């Protein structure tokens, strides 16, 4: 399990800074979520094969819990334990 050092909301979801790496959870639509994780300091600029160029989807809310953060659309609820 990776230790979370910080997190922040982005225009597409959240970016979580880990002790060793980063985690990004973002939305392409209310029911399509993209999860990326790396042990590096930045993501490589690799092509995605699921959604060619995801449109900007901003209709989500972020809820900050004591030891977690939730991302919610009208179709999905994602909880990240901190």
UniProtKB/TrEMBL annotation:
GO biological process: carbohydrate metabolic process
GO molecular function: carbohydrate binding; catalytic activity
Protein name: Uncharacterized protein
The organism of origin for this protein: marine sediment metagenome
Lineage: unclassified sequences, metagenomes, ecological metagenomes
